[in-house]
């Protein structure tokens, strides 16, 4: 699916470059990207996404999890990446690691390879 | 605050007021002396724990909503009991537990490579790959290739070996004793009442994490059993979480519980936006009204979550949306792998997202909480190294650490039995 | 089929007909009851096995063609006997075995880091690196640096400590008893006749695999001791290997044997091409005529290989090119490292390739067989976990599993002695 | 030696790209490559090699193990890789692992680092 389309829903074309960098379907894939990001990367993502968050969430509120088209799915994946990356800018001083923490690489998410829009996370 | 017998109780709360303990009562009942670390340090005690606790107590191994359909199964590896356990929903919709062991020569019927494995039995049977023996999901041995080549084979006695299995509120427990000394309901006792009635089964969206910690299982359990560490350890992920109050202490036989009140965290910009999404509706917003009456009995508005210790290795942090935005509850378990190695499992439970925006908000809250767990787990291996070094022989415990004091005493009493 | 006394025998076969057993005879002689798993589960029994089996039985530790030249040696680590063993071909072309221990203060004479180490002694001596003591490859202590500084030193009594070592058909065995109760030939008995005369030494191209399995050694031995699992376990690597017949049961004192007949596998496209290369000539093609007469005594055209169990821990699967294309035979050994850990060694033997194309074909067949071994070994750790769990107390054994039944009885009789 | 030449014997130049991807002198080196291959990789190797197998084997039948030149050795290494990889296409549905198996990484080949054309495999 990810390779099938790189488009975003109408009105969100300005986020295309960010999506190419950050949008991934699974927690494991997004973590791998996040672990390599710099403070500048986190700041840029935050600066670009925060002003658009209301619009993004309003668009996604109209989408059932199991009925998104590929453009909506891509917007969802970008929003998911922002949801997980925002604390690194807001709370962790731009560090890709949570300060004073256990190795995030040693945490195994049971849902790590499941698409994050799945309705069967149990 | 700790006196559950005060006025203004929610209806039904007084029925459990005998569980409540003031700080003075806790000190009188559990003592105030330091507690020995020997039970953590001594491998011989771990050998005893395997026999006298993990082969005798009820252990949560699954939830009903993990295996919702007939034929769904979960295999859980439990090295603490040298066991691989198959939990399966039979054709009669009943959940049973079996040793995942072929009765022919002992191979695993369902092969596994992880600590947990999920699957679905086709046609309500599981088949051993070694020689093709077929078992019903309700246990009986159904068919044996080349059956005539066995000089004798009493198929009726060669079903999967069953393990006692009972459920409470959709949490599935097993007991290796044959038969168990008590039913699960008897074992849970007042805890089942205190925590009963919450719609756990409606919060079926689970984010699960696990890791293998190089420490004794009780080091991990104890680190998650108190709120004393929150302002220090969680200064990063929960900034401003300073008004925390760890109160409403309750003793419940081998179990115990307590409540975390507080003003919550100073939400960051993005968190405030995501929380707003949850708080707009009743599905994910704070629902203190759903809490069983013995929890937050006076209906305080700063309730965060209830933190019990369910003997021997389960925590259910019941928040009902009051603590982390949108989260119904979260659980921890601590599975010994050997004396100095522990499988920790943490699961965040949400009600199902009604649209993609709610799921994004869940991912945010889940990530914040996962990060807090990364802060918690950072201390555990160091603590165990310190205890093994012999530099200290005792732990100093304050009032908010009474769950540790109580768990240590319960462990001692089981080992002495 | 199992009656070796039937008509139409190959010349010489009747001399061994007293070894053959019908299914009825096997059932009468070995019983049909389930067999206890206690000998696998109980660490105390493993301690007994070390003493009463591995320090008393003849153990294959090398082949003559592994150390073909004078001075060639092999060191084999045998934790089951707390021993490091030096097997070396002396100047007189004789192969001897010694404890790989310097008689000065106990250092290893040949340092090793793996379970097996090969080398060549220059000038027919080995020198301990600790202080430079020099030993001849036939054992005597040859020289000691600063010998005059020892107040007393009886060099004549300070040679390498010899271990009883005898060969059969180029397979080198040792015996830790001093002296052994029987010669190797007496110990092998009729097995030496049944398997004798095949040109093992001509199949000197060996592909060796080993792995450490987290299971008791008998779990591994037993999994390789029967053909009942072939249609299930090997459905991937041996598709269509369904016409398998495990027959010609033979009891030979502490040893036993049996034959795998069948139509072989449905060869894949590439396998058919590689097999064609072997089958074009007599060097690598099927050579049932080379089989000793007691094996495949009626000359069946669907012979695959002979599967014996040579007490306590050796299997020689003799195929003579009839089973896997081009393969002369393959061996397994199972070396306990401790109660729950086993070094498994599997070796595929081919006659030397006459050109590079034949070697490529050997690599293909070797890979197929290695893959089948990967399927075999997949069950072993699970089986041991299952047996340790206590879920079953007995193994159910069918006729084709008689080698297991027989080995378990032989083990019992050794432990009782 | 392997880096000294990348040529194949005359008449086999069409296999040069495959050889660059697959030809390695030892079982350990070939296993490392095989473990990272996809179903498409195995299918492509099989599709290219199978029609040429008769010619490759005929050429190698003329080579003694201890007398190959470097081009012949490279052809041998490619044929060896095919010999070991073919079952993954033919039997294992394109999987780099043998299905339902023990970890291949835990098997230690005693000859793993010995060149596969060695006459001293014993």
TrEMBL record, chains B, C:
<dbReference type="InterPro" id="IPR015879">
    <property type="entry name" value="Ring_hydroxy_dOase_asu_C_dom"/>
</dbReference>
<protein>
    <submittedName>
        <fullName>Aromatic ring-hydroxylating dioxygenase subunit alpha</fullName>
    </submittedName>
</protein>
<keyword id="KW-0479">Metal-binding</keyword>
<dbReference type="Pfam" id="PF00355">
    <property type="entry name" value="Rieske"/>
</dbReference>
<dbReference type="InterPro" id="IPR036922">
    <property type="entry name" value="Rieske_2Fe-2S_sf"/>
</dbReference>
<keyword id="KW-0223">Dioxygenase</keyword>
<dbReference type="InterPro" id="IPR001663">
    <property type="entry name" value="Rng_hydr_dOase-A"/>
</dbReference>
<dbReference type="Pfam" id="PF00848">
    <property type="entry name" value="Ring_hydroxyl_A"/>
</dbReference>
<keyword id="KW-0001">2Fe-2S</keyword>
<dbReference type="InterPro" id="IPR017941">
    <property type="entry name" value="Rieske_2Fe-2S"/>
</dbReference>
<dbReference type="GO" id="GO:0051213">
    <property type="term" value="F:dioxygenase activity"/>
</dbReference>
<feature type="domain" description="Rieske">
    <location>
        <begin position="58"/>
        <end position="174"/>
    </location>
</feature>
<keyword id="KW-0411">Iron-sulfur</keyword>
<keyword id="KW-0408">Iron</keyword>
<keyword id="KW-0560">Oxidoreductase</keyword>
